[in-house]
DNA sequence: AAGTGACATGTAACATGGCAGTTTGACACC
DNA sequence: GGTGTCAAACTGCCATGTTACATGTCACTT
């Protein structure tokens, strides 16, 4: 016996569709959306689309300009820096808590996702590597066993996920170093060395932030097309 | 001549009204709301009310149960613990950053709000003390100069603000110790002693969490009345 | 050619109506 | 007294209509 989970409302699936389209790059960054067009494309009315866009705005994935339109977010250098700093704070704190209060499960989950990433790396599977990476960091957050923290994390991380697929299309990021850093974190966790694990993790996210910065600086194009 | 700032949308003022009513205690915790009644009471249609409630749900102030009704949140012991832990993580990280990159302004703001709290304390002004307290912690968050962090903080802190007014009606909390702890943080910040400031702040929030716990344990009543 | 303003178009905000799921309570029945 | 039934009331979800505002277009003036 378990509480039955309600079937997802139309608004929720609509939000998932649009979120997925943004993260996957189907809807380009900065492109203009329209409630009506999205509703027509998804075969629903404007109401759920409107609700979904409002939810996505709170995730930072879209920006609703009153009476003007809704736009996919555009990566601003400062905003990305702030997001990465925020992410570092949440993840390092979660890692600290997880090692102390949830060591066995945390280590197991990290090792599993680490293995998945190594397999993907050997198979040159960029998408698989990204999935493993998300799984890895998600395990860190879940290890803290704090739903408020997890909710906040998921709400702030979406734009970074979208940026990742937009900037690193075909394994162009330094996956070798990334893999080594993940393994270093796992080793530190295995040794229950909180300080080392936290500093390794902070460095890892810092490197990602640096990669974002260099990529963003080289992309001055601000092309605002219509997508929907 | 100056650029005219757009008047707030109906949804925004509606959300502010309802949020204020919850935080101030006008709408009791756990009470059942209704889009229709709220709309009638506020003199607007159901649309802005609905949007506002959705926004308040993402703040954790209300819980929308599909087809059943919307309820003001109820303080769950574990949820409150998690909120306080989350809050500690955000504030200590912000304080750390603020001392390093924004010391002068941070110290000034903290001293100002500290003085306001002392005045309120001398005048037995409970409301004034609470306002000063909010100002104090807000200054810490703003000191980090990270909008993502600040947004996340404001989104998670609302239930705690509501709890404070619900649990500590008439100066029943230990304001003397609270005041001393605030001053201790200020002194540590003045001395640029990051470690000390952070640990003092963590202790302070921990004490608040403890006060919440004891209060909540003594309130077993789960009276769900209708308010709107 | 450059500037102006009327106008058409597109947008989201807001209002309202219909609908399906949930709760409630009266009431017949055991 | 306890139990099952069912209908009415209530709820939020979704669809659609209406309105105010933003903006692009283009004839017209200078």
TrEMBL record, chains A, B:
It comes from the Bacteria. Residues 8-75 form the HTH gntR-type domain. The keyword Transcription applies. GO terms for molecular function: DNA binding; DNA-binding transcription factor activity. InterPro entries: GntR_C, TF_FadR/GntR_C, Tscrpt_reg_HTH_GntR, WH-like_DNA-bd_sf, WH_DNA-bd_sf. SUPFAM superfamilies: GntR ligand-binding domain-like (SSF48008), Winged helix' DNA-binding domain (SSF46785). Keywords: DNA-binding, Transcription, Transcription regulation. PANTHER family: TRANSCRIPTIONAL REGULATOR, GNTR FAMILY, TRANSCRIPTIONAL REGULATORY PROTEIN. This is GntR family transcriptional regulator. It comes from Rhodalgimonas zhirmunskyi.
